[in-house]
Amino acid sequence: MALTAEQIRHLARLAQLRLTDAEVERLTRELAGILDWIAMLDDLPLEEDKAQSGAGDAKAGGGAPLREDAPQPAPERKDLLRNAPAVDGAYFSVPKVVE
Predict the structure, then answer these.
(1) Which pTM does this prediction carry?
(2) pLDDT tens by residue, the chain, 99 residues
(3) Domains of the chain (ranges, CATH numbers)
(4) Pairing label, strands 91-92, 87-88
């Protein structure tokens, strides 16, 4: 795909970047190459092949078997707080991040 230096400058302005002319030239070449590689992917024959599929419905033959979705009891508060680096009574204690 052909990119122009003006398109690269426009992207740089949107990203609030200051680029030298040499950087614009280099990025124009590099991004055009990346877009050419992406365009090549459009030409690949991507027919659905269950044998190569890694995801999907386990019952349909693709992916890992799924466990039954069943409610579980919540852990006890004391068990959760035991793993906390700091607690304040019955709550997690975390550093203040807002003034």
Answers:
(1) 0.44
(2) 688 999 999 999 999 999 999 999 999 999 999 999 999 988 888 776 555 555 555 555 556 778 888 999 999 998 999 989 999 988 999 988 988
(3) 5-42 (1.10.20)
(4) antiparallel
